[in-house]
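Hey L., structure's done. Input below.
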Amino acid sequence: MAAPPSLSPRVASPPVSRGGIGLAQGRYGVRGNLELVLCDEDDGLWVLWFNSDPQDTAPAPGGPPPGEWSGALRFATGRRYDDVGVLQSRHGPHHLELTARCGDSSHRLRWSPEAAFTTEPPPPGGPARAVTATETANGTLWTGFLGTDGEPRLLRADTSAYPHLTWSDATPAHHLLTDSRWTAMALVALRDGAGARPGVVLTGDREGRYLSPTGDTHPVPAGTVTTAVAQDDGDGDGDGARIYVWSEGPWLDVLTPGHPGPTRRLALPGSGDVTALAATPISYEPGRTDLVVRRGGQLWHLRDTGPDGATPAATALMSRLTPAPDDEPRPVHRG
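Output:
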């Protein structure tokens, strides 16, 4: 009897997206898959996942093989979003927390295995030009707002009644947070839980600053797009924040506050302006950060292993589905 024909993976570009993107390493899969959230060009959000399993692991029916991205699933329709962020929370347990922005209004969404994506009451941050969120080692959820007046605010959530959150203003009394020159903001929760709050990255057209959890400040290159992760870059002099900033060139500026040496440059693939940037540390490979960058309309998946690592790998982000033999054909992207 002849062997049945093999089914080749179906390949497609991800949906056309706009605005900011969110990236996090989740709890699912053998080693923790990546979760990527995109703002649709016209309506709603898309979520894709990257299979981080070892190469000899069989993929789930209908899912991508190890080392590949899934097709996308659309959700949260009814709004045209401008920005989105995602984090893998300890609460739930293992729920995904999403903070999104539509115009100057913020929105909170949550993914749980029982109910998939649900809409939750948003943090009370007021009109904002940027919204970002993180979770510190003790399980506290934080949201940072860059107001339409350019001034940053930091909110802390009481999670004792999760998923219901009670918010309080936790903006430190610091001159950097009473300034209106900033255009981008990122939060970074250090892995050792140092300090009572996350670090705050603020950048603008002419300069940038990092405010550490202990109140120290460090210069950051000027830039219009920025992100940060908790990462150890070597000798222990730094506080564990790895910051990525894009200004104009074909590279990202990369620095670890307090770490000796010049700012590092991470070469970018493709051409054109960077319009979105997100990053996540990778738990199964210490020192590695994965990034997704939109440059010139193309999404790229990059792997940065730090200042002493090999040349960063970069691949164009494509969706793949490997159908099971008894499955009916399904579209790569599901609206």
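Confidence is low (pLDDT under 50) at residues 1-5. The two ends are 40 Å apart (CA to CA).

-- N.
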